[in-house]
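Cross-check.
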Amino acid sequence: MEAFTIFIFFLAVVFFFSTFKTIAQGQIGVVTTFGKYRRIMMPGLNFKLPFIETIYKRISIQNRSAELEFQAITGDQATVQFKALLLFAVLDQREETIKNVAFKFLDEKNFMQTLVRTVEGSVRSFVATQKQADILGSRSEIVDHVKHQIDQTLETWGYHLIDMQMNDIAFDSAIMKSMAQVVASNNLKAAAENEGQALLITKTKQAEAEGRAIKIAAAAEKEAAQLRGQGISLFREEAAKGMSEAIKQLQGSHLDASVMLFSMWTETIRHVAENGKGNVIFLDGSVDGMEHSIKRLMSMNNGNLWKGNQE
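Predicted model, tokenized:
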């Protein structure tokens, strides 16, 4: 009797633990009855029929990621290396979606293999229509193409692609080297053009500055020449007036004006001799020469007097 009681107690414990099951947060349980789908269990404590219902699989509804690394050939026969990151998740928590996730593939390995190959094929089909020079700038276009191509297929499997990131796009070393040389040559060409433009601007500005300086110097020289001419003219005018006044005073005092003229002439010669710098002046110091000089001065004096009388 005691053994039977223990057996009944043991069966009650097993029945209790087989009746209640806990589903963790972020998961959904798929329940089958003798291998046939029956229902789903949401997170928390759930009731199930012992020995009849079985939890076939626990489906994670959290975001999942997968890394891809593969090659593709461009339209101009260049090999491109891709490294990408996929972010995907179960489409929703509806029962039909969970059934697709649970039963579309044999196991998780088969699903991941199919997903990766599908994404790789979509990328290769896009890359085959592009040239190698356009690939590096087509990251967003590749992602959009992949999402557009496989989103509908993933929905039939119960999943949906959240995001795809192209972490690395690289060509063969020979192609990368040639591309680097092209970029370097273009940079050198641009630098040479910029340097030429800068030199042209510098030379133009220098020529403009020199032209303005020449114009300013010419204007200043012109003005200075005009002022010098005016100064000489005024000096001569004042000198002539002074000489006329002096001669008139001498004549009024009944003195010979030639004496004054001779004195002015000798003073001029002395001034030139004292202030000259290496200049040689040849003078006729004979009596005839001096007499000839006085006569010329007197003739100049008479001419000035005649002009003064006319005025």
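Residues 173-252 form the longest helix (80 residues). Strands lie at 20-23, 27-33, 36-41, 44-47, 53-60, 64-73, 79-90, 159-171. Passed to J.P. for a second look.
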